[in-house]
Amino acid sequence: MAIFLFQEANMKKKMIMQSVIRFILVAVALGFLMIWFMVPTSTFEKWWPSIGAKTNSTYFSFTGTNILIFTFPVLFIAVLGCVYLHLGNNPEKNYVQSNSTKGHLSFWKRTALVKGPLGIVSWTEISFLFMFIALLVWSFTVYLQLSFSKITPKSAKEDGIQLWEARLNSAGQILGLVGNICLSFLFFPVARGSSVLPLLGLTSEASIKYHIWLGHMVMTLFTGHGLCYIVYFVATDHSSEMLKWSKTEVSNLAGEISLIAGLAMWATSFSSIRRKMFNLFFYTHHLYIVFLVFFVFHLGPAYSCIMLPGLYLFLIDRYLRFLQSRDRVELTEARVLPCEVVELNFSKSPGLKYTPTSIVFVNIPSISKLQWHPFTVNSSSSLEEDKLSVVVKSEGKWSKKLYQMLLSSSPIEHLSVCIEGPYGPTSSHFLRCTNIIIFSSRKLLKDMSNSSKIWLADMTHLCWLVGGAALLR
Questions:
Q1: Is the pLDDT at 169 greater than 50, yes or no?
Q2: What's the pLDDT tens digit per position in 420-470?
Q3: Does Transmembrane helix appear among the keywords (predicted)?
Q4: Are 359 and 450 in contact (CB under 8 A)?
């Protein structure tokens, strides 16, 4: 009885701490978003010199102002979010909460679109997408209004250019400024281990589409930015300015190199190319390093800090994933199943827990040192505490090589494997549904057995997928 009362009191303390932290996180997040709405306005322009004078430091100079305003709030949310998630790390609670999510909030989680360029999206995602587009339109409109109000025929004549050329120059600059807003959010969805995604109820694999959306926005705006300045330099007979590399001002050549790297990534990221030539997409996407380095050269370190929050979280996540991927995982068993299917079983610590539908990235250096392939975890962390399993279907070049290696009857001790993950939702969100449809192929049905609570659904439909009628014999 005393132990029960102690646990109940401890649980209440955790709930109070979570409520306080949640309030702080929401307040800081709203303040951070409010800053973005204020940045284009004349009010912020008047405040900026005063803010810069008060936050100027010996070591960072005016770069410290951008770090304080744009970077510190996000890092504060990420650190405090880790504490919040740790306090709420209760699998049983997650199952109950997910199963009891009903009422008017469930409408916003329903699917709004299935087909189209956006893919499968919910009403919540559409709402936030429209709000983000509204932020971009607001910023562009306010920037344009303030800038054009300062451009007059007299001021253009003093600069030795025509009125339309002055406005084109201003419009190109504004497209770059609005593109920087998208760039500031670009890296948040791909920071797999960041606490920001779980705080928003997102998973790493589900957030990839947000990265794709933002990437298209970034490159559309930056391409418009570059074209405006190309036309401007040609029209004003200053084509030599495109090769200018200034150490104190904006470096045009660095911006062009950054844009070319971005266009190469953009061209290979469209689904028609990505699906057919994934290796081309994968290796070309490493040009993001060139893109970012020359972006900093283009604008300078001070202004580049505007994209630092998401990039910093991404770099930390990337470094931690690099450390994890360096360790070789013990492969305890490899089974060759019918229909050219392979099951890989790895030993794991009993303390490693994961939810259904979690995924891991697998790398086999003897096949490819660079390729990492995602697979759904096929085992239950509650039923099989010391084992983690994945099933690989022999379809692509990588999986076919793996299948042939295991058919050769070579000892599995010689098969070196690296694993990254697992990644998955903090709770089983599908448990809130009264009807569940499971599409599965033979062995893959097992990954849905990670919790017996799945059968709390009023009705569960199983659709068994096979590659052909011959497999049913």
A1: yes
A2: 878 876 666 666 666 677 766 555 555 454 444 444 455 667 776 666 665
A3: yes
A4: no
Radius of gyration of the chain (CA): 26
Question: Does residue 340 form part of some domain?
Answer: yes
335 phi/psi in degrees, rounded to 5: -115, 135
Q: Is residue 277 part of a domain?
A: yes
CA distances from 379 to 436, 448, 449 (A): 20, 9, 8
CATH number of the domain bearing residue 395 = 2.40.30.10
Q: Which residues does residue 377 pair with via DSSP β-bridges, in sequence order?
A: 390
Domain identity same for 275 and 368: no
Compute the CA torsion angle 169, 170, 174, 176 (nearest 10 deg).
Answer: 20
Quick check: is 194 in a domain? Answer: yes
* 252 and 334 part of one domain: no
Query: Percent of the chain at pLDDT above 70?
Result: 82
d(CA 418, CA 416): 7
Residue 105 and residue 465: Cα distance in Å, rounded? 33
Q: For residue 143, which phi and psi values (nearest 5 degrees)? A: -55, -45
Secondary structure element (H or E) that encloses residue 419, with its range: strand 417-423
Residue 340 backbone class (left: φ over 0; alpha: ψ -120 to 50; beta: rest): left
- Strands 341-347 and 331-337, how do they pair? antiparallel
Domain extent, residue 14, equals 1-98
Is 84 part of any domain? Answer: yes
pLDDT of 112 above 90: no
- Are residues 294 and 360 both part of a single domain? no
Is there a single domain that holds both residue 311 and residue 345? no
Place of tokens 């050269």: 297
How far is residue 287 from each of residues 158, 336, 398, 445, measured CA to CA in Å? 41, 38, 23, 39
Q: Give this prediction's pTM.
A: 0.82
> What pLDDT does residue 177 have?
93
Q: How far is CA 44 from CA 35, 143, 336, in A?
A: 9, 12, 64
Q: What is the pLDDT of residue 349?
A: 80
- Long-range CB pairs of 208-214 (<8 Å, 24+ gap) are 209/118, 209/119, 209/121, 211/186, 211/187, 212/269, 213/118, 213/129, 214/182, 214/185, 214/186, 214/189
pLDDT value at 44 more than 60? yes
